[in-house]
Amino acid sequence: MFLLIFVLFAISLIVFYMARGALPPEYSLAPYITPKMTDAQKLQLAQSLRVATASCPSYQAFSSHDPQCVAPLWGQYVIWLGLIAQGNWGYSQLPGLAGTARTWDVFTGRFPFTAQLAIGGSIVTFLIAFPMGIISATRNNKLPDHASRIAALVGYSLPIYWFGYMLQIVFVLYLAVGGKGLFQGSGALATECVICFSSPGSINTFTGMPILDSVLSGNLPYFWDSLLSTVLPIIALSLATLSSLTRIVRSSMMEALRQDYVLLARSKGLRERVVVYRHALRNALLPAITVSGVIFSTLLGGVVLTETVFAYPGIGQAIVSASLVVDINFLELYVLVIASILVITNLCVDMIYAVLDPRIRY
Amino acid sequence: MTETEEVPVKALTGRRAELKHAYTLYKQNPVVVAGSIIAVGSIVLALLSNVIVNPNIWQVEQLGQRLCWNNPTFSWPVTNVFDCPGATYPLGTDSWGRNVLQMIILALPLDMEISLTIVVSATLIGVALGSFAAYVGGKVDEAILRVTDIFFALPALVLAIVVMTILGRTIMNLTIAVLIPWWPIYVRLIRSQVLSEKERPYVEALRSTGASPVRILFLHILPNTIYPVIVQMTLDIGNVILTFSALMFLGFSPNPLLPELGNLVTEGISYVFTAPWLIVFPGLTILIVVLGFNLLGDGVRDVLDPRLRR
Amino acid sequence: MLEAPGISEIAAPVLEVKDLRVVFHTYAGEVKALDGVNLTLNRHEIFGIVGESGCGKSVTALAIAGLLPENASVSGQILLDGRNLSELGKEEMRQVRLKDVAQVFQDPMTYLNPVLQVGFQITEALVTETNVYEKQMIGERLRELDQLEKQGTNGLQALEQERGKLQNALRSGRVSKGQARELARDVALEYLKLVRLPEAERIFKMYPFELSGGMRQRAMIAMALVKRPKVLLADEITTALDVTVQAQILALLQELKDKIDASIVLITHDLGVVSEVCDRVAVMYAGNVVEVAELRELFSNPLHPYTQGLMAAVPRPDRSTVKLQSIKGSVPDLIYPPSGCRFHPRCPKAFAACSQRKPPLIEATKGHYVECLLYGG
């Protein structure tokens, strides 16, 4: 718990200071300005936010960086903390929105889409990596092992974005029937592909994730179309982490199978399956689980690339635009959310580890 | 049972013998050999690139040659592919009319240079901080660990994006942006290596002879911890290329014309279905180079690790 | 025709190993680990195999249990009650390991699975392979119920009920998982008490790291005995223990010899251990059995020069003025072993023929076998 708070504080402080220290103060003010504000109102706002000093004469002086307007950062930080504690992240600066939509709303609107990809990617990664790693380890140095090792190495060396485009080229361009590709290359709802519904109707919003909401609203065509639109992105996203986890499972299984207790288990006359799954795997899981935190982190990073390539409306796509226009609050919010998710994930991993390994508990 | 006299077993000892045996193992492993050929090949190509291709050619726009393809052996089943007038372009041309093959060759040295800079810097920082933390222990160690924890709370790409946003788009800033999430890995790696070496009897013996900590650290402990670090460095050359080319792809490059593999892919985004070669070949190059270094790193690990486990 | 040594006229031996050869195919070369090993194990005896590290003692045990790695080729005969184990397939060999051959290993810390409870590991095979053990477990429980009845405990009705259920299970041939677990637990507790582990019930639920070295080793012995094996292979079981604990374990083995049906093969490098508990002893060197004899006979009259060297090398506090003797030279490389008798380069009594042919196993005196040209061959 303390770790979470400490990390969040440290990150927010570091990013705050780096960002606002390196950039002109207009950027700090921008998220709170509404389009209709007058200059006087802007100056007042700047002073209440401690972005400008109380003695600053005019908005022009402020925007031309007059030294008497420059305020210390710590004051800004305190006020800013107070604001975000109330959930006020200002207005989003993303292109096309400029001051009309609140940052918080934009973020929470997009977050479920990213969650879909991240969760899907995790499921695919874990579901495929473990069996492949185990098979590779138990049939060591035979054909399945060599094949999966090479496949894993290639998967691990792929640039995600390039692979995303390759998938699009293959499935949308080449595997096309009647002008429509097999899957749709972009967007969160597939309506332009061979096997999808062209007009699936609408759904009620419960969680914000189309896949879940469509099931909850009972709209199966919508569910199918949303699902289809995630297939290619999830493949592109999880290939790298899948490959990496397969290698780790393989090596930790091989290590476990070399252990003395495996010899003892065999000498008791136990079936090979029992030896592999009950004795070797239980111990091999431990190093594999510790890596899950890193794997999940890589997934969350890869989401940025995947959403860009597939025009998927999640926070990954938004962060790229946010960086290009320097929407400071969006950046901070994004960073803090991602960091919280990762720290919590690591805590869960530690707990699972304690469950699996009795030596830690005592 | 017709063995002749006992073969006198020559006592091969020392590092030289181990390296010789390592070399034998290396030759027996085709995957590693393939990897090292690719890796060495790309380095050589990178070094020679200025000789093969005129280094100033990337700034010249030849709009008359835009987006065309005339490779005699292979054609794209895509409609409206223009034919390039004049010389053959084996990998086609891009939206500024430049020869894609030449751009890729020019991009290699830039990518390799940035990658090596980052990996070597991260290793140096890791050695400095990691060994310091491990050797001193106590509160200092705790503090350094906490700092690395902060960096591990964010994915590398995200952290790099944040840094790039703040710093602005230059090659130097890109290098810093990718270095920042990378050094904690080396700090942790070297710290754990030094920690386990520290407990060994020979260190205690050295301490009791009065050798200074610095001497023990650099002359004795570090050489014994170097093999996992070398493996990690080799693997990371590829991973770093993946990360910063991803950054360039996202739009953080200083100049859209810059010949860098990720940047070349960015050009192709608008032409995914009309001129796919713009994306396919630069990306394929990244794949091959990174694969080469990964194969090499894997092989180095296989060859060195079990042999030299102390 | 090789004569297997030590055949008792009274009962057939439980285990006979004839001309066992094992070669490991490795990157470095072909390791000829066993070069024609001959052994006989009689019923109810403790048979010691003694030799230096690397002489092939453990390989012999693994070969008997069928646990050699994939890169090993085995030839020769391993007869368990007349049945040749070296001809059996993997599944059949597994059945043999389930019932007849048990192994206890050197270091109980690494040989016990750290994440599973001790009791679970002991009863594991009983519960998973109930069809193999059900009759044995039910039989033991019925005997226990009889005992309780004789002692006149309360709850005779419950006892009768249980007896009825068990006899049903016996007749129908099916034991439920829950029943199997309970039965196995009872059997395990019985053996835990047999190996003199205090508070058997508590230990049942513990993890290996919570026990001391001696307790872990006893638990491993209980684990091996639970299946009522014919042969118990004890591979350096005292090597990793303190001297005092070692003595306790050896005393335990002595005690068990009369209480259980198994014949024990005790593998060790320590002559002291051998002299404490063994009935007969074999001395191994570089993949060969060089001498076999009864304990007293071997110690008072060692025939093979290697055995003589071993005996002379033991420090004797009563002869403090005599210099410590050692056998000159070192253990040969098994990839390029010496020709003829593998000991000849180090043997003080070697002569020309020793490097030319391998000595056969001959019976020098009654029940005392040697592989050495000095005594014929």
Describe the structure.
The complex is a heterotrimer of chains A (362), B (310) and C (377). Chain A has 362 residues and is mostly helical. Chain A has helices spanning 2-22, 26-29, 39-48, 59-63, 73-85, 103-138, 143-157, 160-174, 210-217, 220-257, 260-267, 272-309, 315-325, 328-356, 358-361. Chain A is globular, with a radius of gyration of 25 Å. The model of chain B is unreliable at 1-12 (pLDDT under 50). With 310 residues, chain B is mainly alpha-helical. In chain B, helix 1 (14-28) crosses helix 10, helix 3 runs parallel beside helix 6 (171-198) and helix 8 (213-252) packs parallel to helix 9. Chain C has 377 residues and is an alpha/beta fold. In chain C, 39% of the residues lie in helices and 20% in strands. Chain C has helices at 57-65, 90-99, 108-111, 118-128, 130-151, 156-172, 177-194, 200-204, 213-225, 243-259, 271-277, 295-300, 305-313, and strands at residues 15-26, 29-41, 46-50, 72-80, 83-84, 101-104, 231-235, 263-268, 280-285, 288-294, 362-365, 368-370. In chain C, strand 1 (15-26) and strand 2 form a beta hairpin. The mean pLDDT of chain C is 85. The chains are: A mainly alpha (362), B mainly alpha (310), C alpha/beta (377).
Strand-pairing-aware structural class of chain C: alpha/beta
**Coarse shape of chain B:** elongated
Gap between N and C termini of chain C:
13 Å
Structural class of chain B: mainly alpha
Helix content of chain C: 25-40%
Question: Which chain pair has the greatest contact?
Answer: A-B, 51 and 47 residues
| Unreliable residue runs of chain B | 1-12
Unreliable sequence segments of chain C:
none
H and E string of chain B: HHHHHHHHHH
Q: Beta fraction of the residues of chain C?
A: 15-25%
The number of E-state strands of chain B comes to 0
Question: How many DSSP E strands of chain C?
Answer: 12
Q: N-to-C SSE series of chain C?
A: EEEHEEHEHHHHHHHEHEHEEHHEE
